[in-house]
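Team,

Forwarding the record for the chain on the shared tracking sheet. I've put the sequence and predicted structure together so nobody has to dig through attachments.
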Amino acid sequence: MTDESSPQTIVVTGASGLIGKELVSALSGAGHRVIRAVRGAVSDPQTEMAWNPATGNIDRDKLIGADAIVHLAGANIAGKRWTPAYKQSLIDSRVDGTTLVSEAIASLEPKPKVLACASAIGYYGDRGEETLDESAPSGDGFLPEVCMQWERACQEARDAGIRVVNMRFGVVLSPAGGALAQMLTPFKLGGGGILGNGRQIFSWISLLDAVRAIQHVINNESLSGPVNLVSPQAVTNREFTKTLGKVLGRPTLLPMPAFVARLLFGEMADALLLASARVIPKSLQESQFEFQHPQLEPALQHLLGK
């Protein structure tokens, strides 16, 4: 276990995203030196470094001396309808960026101690009621394939002896962005309702616990390979819908049938909205990580200030 009180130098890609912004703030507040990887012009050489996965450019000099790399960058999985072109961009943004980072740090001396790379519970696909820990095999379909390629792209770092953790995120809950932020307006207007039959399992984690789990992964040398970043209390879509409505004090009477979801969102509906995956955080729990928000209702009350 790394001493969490000792200042470290930590490079973060995807630092402008929902998780990245909160992580940078938490790491900086804990006294660490954080270097943000940016695609545009570097405005502060002390806190930023240039990189561009599309062109293969990365400022290797800024990586020298880094203790940890947290790689969160990737195109928004729900940013657009899944056309063939956008699906390819989802793969490329993950595989190209991860390959670039892995190759760069594998060539360094000294090397970082750890590469904590984002992945997703999409790895498991649509698995119904099955309980899934990190040993479960991958599922079938587009999202499992994306995640498998994403995780394989870390191989060069792994071969170089760097500890690699593939952080399989569940749905990260925050009113500042992501799925919960998109739900708030319709729910507040009384337009919330179950999706499909409502029985699909929803594996989630609060933004606070996601950031704390990343810090735990950085500092816990026993963790390597896949690590599920999810709350220990997965819920059904029906349970999530009713709980969010209860916390907001709004009715949840307007269901969205599966066929409507497919008409609106295409292939993405089955992969993101209607798929079921009961994922458990076995590795986190065995490494003594303590969740601040293990249960949904208190988590939503905290997140929404209720």
